[in-house]
């Protein structure tokens, strides 16, 4: 596949999004690293290309378009607004060395507070129509349902915050859930630390970035957590049941409504899912055959906080998703200096479209 062919396909996709009402925008290749590190934490260093600029400090080769598009909209955009863009993004692929670390994306973003579920349906239906004929399997999810479940747990604010912070890291989330529920015993070294009335008295010289005061404060946090009662077994079972939901939308909705009877905190999020399904059906989406997975998007969609979707090739499991997207309302709040607007969007990889079209 030539770069010229990939760019031509990107132009075709971008034109389709413009025809749907999107305004074209451009984003700089070099982005301030501080913004992305603040959003994602130091973890992003292992996935991005970071360098130093004499005038701007740490900068990052653009890992995606969503963050700069949100920043531009929150500073200068009118509403409602629809944007499209195309260009190269850069991501290290240490876990998948066979995958490209430099590839083209084409995106479509909607900023509209009128009817969020209708906007979700608009984006999904547009992507489904644009990718029609490639034999892709669409899958949907909703990070907001799991978030609502965690926010409703009868436990401390600190434990809820820890679980929310690691929703996008399933293994860490599972480990915390096991620890907070008492399923995993306290490690002997931590037990000894917490039992010591003055652990700092035996401490050697400070190594690393934390001061003695910060280390002592952390020990007190651990002591406070150890004194808390475990999460109830009933709540843990409900979260486990929620995470296992993987059915077509109507059956998933029925299952989630059953869970909501015993976990009322997810009720509003489940109602939003129901309205989204209705809006999709109104746009011609075959909701009865559309897959819903409650855990979908938890390993690669860190700024999405609601509806998520992807289009994958059943015949090419070696390929990453051809398209992904979702809702990111919280991101607009964080980048908007107190202002916020509901937002949803997604990206397509034109190189993968050409790969599948050539294999057809």
UniProtKB/TrEMBL annotation:
Annotated GO MF terms: glycosyltransferase activity
Ranges for domain Aminoacyl-transfer RNA synthetases class-II family profile: 13-271
Keywords tagged on the record: Glycosyltransferase, Transferase
Record-linked InterPro entries: aa-tRNA-synth_II, HisRS-like_core, HisRS/HisZ
Oligomer status and interactors: Homodimer.
Name of the protein in its database record: Histidine--tRNA ligase
Source organism of the structure: Thalassococcus arenae
């Amino acid at each position: 596949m030539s770069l010229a062919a990939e760019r031509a396909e990107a132009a075709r996709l971008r034109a389709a999004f413009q025809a749907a009402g999107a305004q074209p925008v451009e984003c700089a290749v070099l982005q301030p690293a501080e913004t992305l590190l603040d959003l994602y934490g130091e973890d992003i260093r292992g996935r991005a290309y970071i360098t130093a600029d004499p005038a701007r400090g740490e900068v990052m080769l653009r890992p995606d378009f969503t963050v700069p598009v949100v920043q531009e909209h929150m500073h200068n955009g009118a509403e409602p607004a629809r944007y499209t863009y195309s260009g190269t993004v850069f991501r290290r692929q240490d876990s998948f060395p066979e995958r490209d670390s430099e590839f083209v994306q084409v995106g479509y973003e909607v900023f509209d507070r009128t009817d969020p579920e209708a906007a979700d349906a608009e984006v999904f239906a547009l992507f489904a129509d644009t990718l029609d004929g490639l034999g892709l399997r669409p899958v949907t999810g909703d990070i907001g349902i799991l978030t609502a479940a965690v926010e409703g747990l009868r436990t401390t604010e600190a434990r809820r915050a820890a679980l929310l912070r690691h929703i996008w890291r399933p293994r860490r989330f599972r480990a915390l859930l096991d620890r907070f529920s008492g399923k995993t015993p306290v490690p002997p070294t931590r037990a000894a630390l917490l039992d010591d009335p003055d652990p700092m008295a035996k401490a050697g010289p400070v190594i690393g970035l934390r001061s003695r005061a910060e280390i002592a404060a952390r020990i007190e946090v651990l002591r406070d957590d150890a004194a808390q009662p475990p999460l109830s077994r009933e709540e843990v079972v409900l979260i486990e049941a929620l995470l296992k939901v993987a059915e077509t939308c109507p059956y998933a909705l029925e299952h989630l409504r059953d869970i909501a009877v015993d976990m009322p905190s997810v009720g509003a999020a489940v109602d939003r899912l129901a309205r989204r399904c209705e809006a999709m059906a109104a746009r011609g989406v075959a909701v009865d055959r559309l897959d819903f997975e409650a855990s979908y998007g938890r390993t690669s969609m860190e700024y999405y906080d609601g509806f998520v979707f992807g289009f994958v090739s059943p015949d090419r499991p070696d390929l990453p998703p051809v398209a992904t997207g979702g809702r990111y309302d919280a991101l607009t709040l964080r980048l908007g200096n107190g202002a916020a607007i509901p937002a949803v969007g997604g990206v397509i990889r034109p190189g993968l479209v050409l790969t599948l079209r050539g294999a057809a």
